[in-house]
Design brief:
The complex is a heterodimer of chains A (321) and B (563). By secondary structure, chain A is mostly helical. Chain A has helices at residues 2-30, 45-54, 61-73, 87-122, 127-141, 144-161, 181-215, 218-225, 230-258, 262-267, 273-283, 286-314. In chain B, strand 2 and strand 3 (95-97) form a beta hairpin. Classes of the chains: A mainly alpha (321), B alpha+beta (563).
Chain lengths: 321, 563
């Protein structure tokens, strides 16, 4: 298994290089980082030429890429063209915020999706199953930006107007109070809920069908015949085997969410990776864009590896050589 | 870099590592209310604390909180709460002294006869936020910093005309120009302390000291969290007097919608630069004590006829260009799409004392337009579109796609042209494709348009926008950095613009700029549509909040007061 993982990691290196080159080429093609300045009368052509040279933007693209790659490999991810912060610091600043949001949301998602999925499968075609299935279809169909805005309208604006306790509209804390733990959790409620609703709805469907596949197979009948309690049959036998597709799903979802639930972070002004990526994309802030995109690529590779490792845990028949 | 990185990493999740008096007090306040989550709803705490704080919400990410390093409009404004320079603006947008005790002029001897020497006398007793006195050495150090090739300051415009800076005594600064520069009042709009520059000299650009600079403005920056917020505190030693409101916060929202929700929930007191399409939403909040505040802006939306006869041969005919002006009903645009919150377009210098008010307007007159077009030989064809020698009177029009206001205005103007038998074909493009540089294939820069629509303003009440008109600024293969998009070239205008740039008598300079406008008006390449007002929302309970055409919200924050 270790040899397998090491081999996979080595294979990932050329993959990441190719990804980084393609990403660099695309970013270059999306616009000119200095375009915004050409509008301004207080910047002369000399100023623009000077800044272009300073940022290395006057060189051909492949050379710019090699320079970036060399710096990146030596730990220098560059400095944002716009905020002049070290990119590593910017990422380290934002990543915990996203981790917090995604962490809270995923705790809710996994517990709720497992419970609802099992319930729905065990009581197949009951009114409860119909209710859960129906609701999850609605959940899948709702766009997250709409749900987020509706939660704000109802639980922030309307509740406030009605004199009820209300949730904040955006941000991580109220500056007038300060960044305290209760403030942050209080501000995380609506965005985490939005994220949780949309993803739970999807997972419930997958878990339900995975369990239904397992529920009728021979080893389950054997387990029941041995006289195992229904609870043990469900959790130890059926659910464990039904986990495989879920692992794949989570492994693919989590890296993309860590790169930022862009829409949700934008609606709730949550200062996470998604906002960082988006604001960098708007301004063609190449160092920041490259760092965030490469981070997603690396996380995806790692998450896939972890998923493979977890397959072996969940299903002992799977062996890696 | 190291020190900054360490500083940033030290920051724990819920505090800053270093404890300041403010944070201790915040901690106490938070501890007092942090009982249960439910009890911690912001209603009571925020209300109770609102009296000593004001929160301004922006819907655009900030760049860098330093005037010398940024051109972002909101970043400049946010910086100007803390950073100030030699001069400032009065209510009528005239220059007044800030660090300078008075504005140098020919009359008071501050400007030499040849305009090459400008002498400032500094205000005595002004101190930096850290308590050090502000002296002429700081002005000199700022100039050295701007011209230092190791530092990536954003613009050297004007500073590169200075040959040397003399500091005969701590309160006198003498600027010796190598060539005359009539726009000198725009220089040194922010000054950086010498002792801070010296302490960070080896890595100034990326230092925390430049990211959250100290100045001598009414508020000092306490904390800047990129993409999130800025916290300021009133500066006790501000020379005009300490601000009445103790704390000032700027919060970043990722969209206007999010910002407007925050205004409705009173998370935000003041909303920065709200687009005009949100006017109905603002009016709906009036019952909750939210007021719409507007001020005319120095920013005119224009429809430009490409002046390059090869790229847009149709518009080579001056009589045709002039005729087209009469087809456009500016007032209809303002009433139908801008809620009346705009002024009909006048010209490039609109909203500043440099706009020529006496130009005969091309008033809306479709009959006159038809008559003129008939006279030019453009006769209505079968489908109502005019023709001449088998050529249809049609041209393409480009503006920013996805900008709803622009697209609506465009449809209206298209209809107005159609009414006089002129066809305007819409070919909108992405912002990046239009506004890129020559090297990036920017379509304005390359002149790849027939008629184009964009807006362009004045940042400061100074008339110097020559780069928009000078022949030498037309971008080309040989001149890829050129910043003129009109592709207009008129030697007479060039000469006048050069002349005004070296004219130090304000009246005389104004007359030259007015003369330039007469020529441009006659040449008629530009249809000036409207100048939309800048719109903010503010609480009715906030007294003395004044929106300034140029110094927007940072004009008088020290006077704001909660009722």
């Amino acid at each position: 298994m270790t040899a397998y993982l090491v081999r996979r990691l080595i294979q990932a290196v050329p993959l990441l290089l190719i990804i980084s080159f393609i990403a660099f080429a695309i970013v270059q093609a999306t616009g000119d980082p200095l375009a915004a300045y050409t509008v301004d009368a207080s910047l002369t052509s000399d100023d623009i030429a000077r800044l272009r040279e300073r940022y290395g933007l006057d060189r051909p693209m492949p050379l710019q890429y090699l320079a970036w790659l060399g710096n990146m490999l030596s730990g220098d991810w560059g400095v944002s063209y716009y905020t002049r912060e070290n990119v590593v610091d910017m990422v380290l600043d934002r990543l915990p915020n996203t981790l917090l949001l995604v962490g809270i949301a995923y705790t809710v998602i996994l517990v709720a999706a497992a419970a609802l999925g099992i319930l729905s499968a065990v009581r197949q075609y009951s009114w409860l199953d119909h209710l859960i299935t129906g609701t999850s279809f609605v959940g899948i169909a709702i766009p997250s930006f709409w749900l987020g805005l509706m939660l704000i309208v109802v639980f922030s604006v309307q509740f406030k107007a009605a004199g009820l306790p209300y949730f904040p509209v955006g941000g991580m804390y109220d500056q007038r109070v300060g960044e305290t733990l209760p403030q942050v959790l209080w501000h995380a409620v609506l965005p985490a809920t939005t994220l949780a609703v949309v993803i739970t709805a999807r997972y419930v469907r997958y878990i339900r069908s995975a369990i239904l596949e397992q529920i009728a197979v021979d080893y389950v009948r054997t387990a029941r015949a041995k006289g195992l309690p229904e609870r043990t049959v469900m959790l130890r036998h059926i659910f464990k085997n039904a986990l495989l597709p879920l692992i794949t799903l989570v492994a693919l979802d989590v890296p993309s969410l860590l790169s930022g639930a862009i829409v949700i972070e934008s609606i709730f002004a949550w200062p996470g990776m998604g906002r960082l990526f988006w604001s960098a994309a708007e301004r063609t802030d190449i160092p920041v864009l490259m760092a965030t995109m490469l981070l997603v690529a690396v996380l995806t590779v790692i998450a896939n590896l972890v998923a493979d490792a977890l397959y072996a845990v969940a299903d002992p028949r799977i062996r890696y050589q | 870099m190291r020190s900054q990185a360490e500083h940033r990493r030290q920051r724990s999740r819920f505090g800053n590592g270093r404890l300041t008096r403010r944070q201790v007090m915040q901690g106490m306040a938070a501890g007092g209310v942090a009982g249960t989550l439910a009890a911690h709803g912001p209603a009571p705490s925020a209300r109770a604390q609102a009296r000593d704080a004001v929160v301004l919400g922006m819907h655009q990410e900030l760049e860098f909180l330093n005037v010398l390093y940024t051109q972002g409009g909101n970043s400049l404004s946010a910086s100007k709460l803390a950073q100030r320079g030699l001069l400032f603006l009065d209510a009528e947008s005239n220059w007044i002294g800030e660090l300078a005790a008075e504005v140098p002029s020919l009359a008071n001897g501050g400007i030499s006869e040849d305009g090459l020497t400008i002498t400032y006398t500094l205000r005595d007793g002004v101190t930096w936020h850290d308590g050090e006195p502000v002296t002429s050495a700081d002005v000199q150090a700022t100039w050295d910093m701007i011209m230092n090739p190791d530092y990536a300051v954003i613009t050297r415009f004007g500073y590169d005309r200075i040959a040397s800076v003399d500091t005969p005594d701590p309160l006198t600064v003498v600027l010796n120009f190598a060539e005359p520069f009539a726009s000198w009042p725009i220089l040194f709009d922010a000054i950086v302390p010498k002792h801070v520059i010296d302490a960070n000299a080896d890595n100034l650009d990326e230092s925390e000291a430049m990211r959250t600079p100290i100045g001598f403005g009414p508020y000092r920056i306490v904390e800047y969290r990129t993409g999130e917020s800025i916290a300021y505190e009133a500066f006790d030693g501000y020379w005009r007097g300490r601000p009445i409101i103790d704390r000032f916060f700027i919060r970043i929202y990722p969209s206007v919608d999010a910002l407007m929700q925050a205004v409705a929930a009173q998370e935000v007191d003041i909303a920065w630069a709200v687009p005009i399409s949100y006017v109905p939403q603002i009016e709906a909040l009036e019952s909750q004590g939210v007021v719409l505040i507007s001020v005319p802006s120095a920013n005119a939306e224009r429809y430009v006829m490409n002046a390059d006869a090869e790229q847009a041969p149709l518009f080579a005919d001056k009589a045709l260009r002039q005729a087209l002006h009469y087809a456009v009903d500016k007032q209809q645009i303002i009433d139908a799409l801008l809620f009346g919150l705009a002024e009909p377009g006048l010209g490039e210098w609109q909203g500043s004392p440099w706009q020529n008010p006496d130009l005969p307007p091309y008033a809306y007159d479709p009959d006159l337009c038809r008559e003129l077009l008939d006279g030019l030989g453009w006769a209505p064809g079968g489908d109502g579109i005019r023709e001449k020698d088998g050529q249809r009177l049609t041209f393409s029009h480009k503006t920013t796609s996805g900008n709803q206001l622009r697209e609506n205005v465009q449809l209206l103007v298209q209809q107005q042209f159609r009414d006089v038998g002129v066809e305007m074909v819409i070919e909108n493009q992405r912002t990046a494709d239009l506004f890129g540089t020559w090297d990036q294939g920017g379509q304005w820069s390359r002149g790849e348009y027939e008629m184009g629509g964009w807006s362009h303003g004045l940042r400061v009440p100074d008339p110097e926008v020559s780069n928009r008109y000078l022949c030498s600024e037309i971008a080309s293969e040989e001149n890829p950095a050129g910043s003129q998009w009109y592709r207009y070239c008129n030697p007479e205008v060039d000469a006048l613009l050069d002349q005004q740039a070296a004219t130090f008598d304000i009246e005389e300079r104004r007359n030259i700029i007015f003369r330039v406008q007469e020529i441009l008006h006659e040449d008629a390449y530009w249809i000036w549509l409207y100048s939309a007002a800048t719109i903010y929302t503010a609480p009715a309970a906030l007294n003395n909040f004044v929106l300034h055409p140029f110094a927007n919200f940072y004009w008088n924050p020290q006077e704001w007061e909660w009722a």
